Amino acid sequence: MSSYLSLVAVFLVGVAAGFLNVTAGGGSLLSLPMLVFTGLSLPMANATNRISIFSQNTVATTKFYRSGVLSVREALSLALPATIGSVVGTSLAIELNPKVLQISISILISVMAFLLLLKPSMWEKERSRDVPRPALFLIFFGIGVYGGFVQAGVGFIFLWALSGFIGHDLVRSNALKVAVILSYTSISVAMFAAKGLLDLKVGLVLACGSMLGGYLGARFAVSKGSRWVRWMVAGAVIVSAFKMMSQALYS
User: Fold this and answer.
1) For residue 132, what pLDDT is reported?
2) What burial letters (b/e) apply to 14-34, b meaning 16+ CB within 10 Å?
3) Residues 1-18: tens digit of each pLDDT
4) Within 10 A of 200 (CB to CB), how many other CB atoms are there?
5) Which of 88, 103, 190 is nearest to 144 (CA)?
6) Hey, CA dihedral for 245, 247, 248, 251, is it positive or negative?
7) In what helix (H) or strand (E) does residue 148 lie, and over which residues does it extend?
8) What is the pLDDT at residue 224?
9) Whole-Å CA distances, 41 to 4, 32, 33
């Protein structure tokens, strides 16, 4: 495949990944293999992918905020522990193999798939839950560690925490998710850049596609509501859990 066609393919995958990441999660399971296909090493692909994550979440956060479904104050309170965790996770990503963590997360999101299908009220309705602040800090710190480490599938874990522990419906959970990911990804991008692991040309092409996909995904989530989003998340979770487990076991 020529260099031009490769970049067109990267752009189109970026659109799909951006839409999927904002409405559900798991878009990195599309974009990472595409980046490796263009010739990037896995560590460089993992780092370069963060450029598109940052870009798509910038667009999606703006769209959710303008639509009135994003609480900036709550997003900032959750972004603090997640960002601290991402610094730890990004440091690990530079040194360690993510196989064991991938297996653990694939099992976790498999359980999430069953809850999405069997307990719709958990995801479609706003509920008030009184979770102690120290517990929330630890939960989002842990999610940040994983997000900084490997990113793929982290959106599912955010949705589980925001809907299952805090009690938001999927539309508000998605709005908070993209805002928090935007916050910590900015730190991860800077850390990877300092290590010389970013391919700016490929990363920016992917980012252009993912910004378009992120905007369309945020618009879809706001207009369709939590029920449609729940089915999208369920499908993405099932496919992603299977793919993550397969990659971890056979890589």
Assistant:
1) 77
2) bbbbbbbbbbbbbbbbbbbeb
3) 457 888 898 899 889 888
4) 11
5) 88
6) positive
7) helix 133-149
8) 60
9) 20, 10, 10
Q: Which two tokens stand for residue 162?
A: 């925001």
The distance from CA 129 to its chain's CA centroid, rounded to whole angstroms, is 24
Exposed/middle/buried for residue 45 (C-beta within 10 Å: 0-12, 13-18, 19+): buried
C-alpha distances out from residue 175 to 47, 66, 116, Å? 24, 11, 18
Intervals of the chain under pLDDT 70: 1-2, 24-26, 93-130, 151-153, 222-251
Count Cβ neighbours within 10 Å for each residue of 122-150 and write b for 16 or more, e otherwise. bbbeeeeeeeeeeebbebbbbbbbbbbbb
Q: Which of 90, 45, 25, 97 is nearest to 206 (CA)?
A: 45
- Supply the pLDDT for residue 206: 93
For 49-116, the DSSP string reads HHHHHHHHHHHHHHHHHHTT---HHHHHHHHHHHHHHHHHHHHHHHHS--HHHHHHHHHHHHHHHHHH
Q: Report the alpha-carbon distance of residue 167 to residue 219 in Å, rounded.
A: 22
Picking from 240, 19, 234, the residue whose alpha carbon sits closest to that of residue 123 is 234
Q: What are phi and psi of 151, to 5 degrees?
A: 70, -45
Specify the pLDDT at position 248.
56
128 by DSSP, 3-state: which? coil
